[in-house]
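re: the backbone from monday

yeah here it is again, tokenized this time
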């Protein structure tokens, strides 16, 4: 696999001081956001956060992404570990298609039905860059922050030991409760 990686730089944030390294795979650029001391931890906390421009940047209430990112960065800054910011917008259908999916959701489709109606799978993400990040940073034992059983399965398939799973549950609102319910009922997410 052809992966290009940056050198490591400092990134002071409102959450604390992190180090960052960018990874480029095909046309997607991803980021590892690491707490200062994570190399010294036997099993660091890891969050794989898939990009959601509408949530992460604009504060959309249609999903729980911004709250989950906020939770992960606070937690990792305090407890040690890393967030992999995985640039696969809209479960990897891209921003334009996600907006089309949102328009279908405005007409009553749920998050899965909208994707299928547009000719995509319910979740088209590919996590192969995550394997490269784990190798690059010598991670073989982690504590994974997620509700998503697919992420757990993927990490375990790499031979990485998950010593603990930390739920990424945040407060729901009127706009995202159906979305969260669909993830729970139809995608097996552990809420
Ligand atoms: N296609 C599509 N993508 C969405 C929608 N809402 C959020 N997303 C994308 O879904 C991804 C986040 O997925 P989630 O299901 O919230 O969470 P997860 O990463 O699978 O699982 P957790 O680790 O438990 O948070 C991001 O890439 C978002 O852009 C939607 O309605 N349609
Ligand atoms: Zn979102």
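seq for it, each position gets an aa:
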């Amino acid at each position: 696999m052809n992966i290009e990686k940056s050198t490591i730089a400092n990134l002071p944030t409102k959450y604390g001081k992190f180090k960052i390294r960018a990874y480029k795979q095909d046309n997607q650029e991803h980021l590892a956001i690491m707490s200062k001391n994570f190399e010294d931890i036997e099993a660091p906390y890891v969050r794989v956060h898939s990009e959601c421009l509408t949530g992460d940047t604009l504060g959309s209430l249609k999903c729980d992404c911004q709250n989950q990112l906020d939770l992960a960065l606070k937690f990792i800054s305090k407890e040690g570990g890393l967030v992999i910011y995985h640039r696969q917008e809209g479960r990897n259908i891209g921003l334009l298609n996600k907006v089309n999916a949102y328009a279908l959701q405005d007409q009553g489709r749920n998050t899965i039905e909208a994707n299928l109606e547009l000719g995509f799978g319910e979740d088209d993400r590919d996590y192969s860059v995550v394997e490269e990040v784990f190798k690059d940073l010598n991670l073989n034992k982690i504590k994974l922050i997620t509700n998503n059983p697919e992420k757990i399965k993927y990490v375990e398939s790499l031979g990485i030991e998950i010593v603990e799973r930390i739920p990424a549950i945040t407060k729901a609102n009127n706009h995202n409760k159906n979305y969260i319910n669909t993830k729970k009922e139809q995608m097996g997410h552990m809420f």
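The domain at 3-88+125-187 is CATH 3.40.50.10990 (Rossmann fold). The helical segments are 53-57, 65-79, 89-92, 95-106, 111-117, 128-136, 149-157, 177-187.
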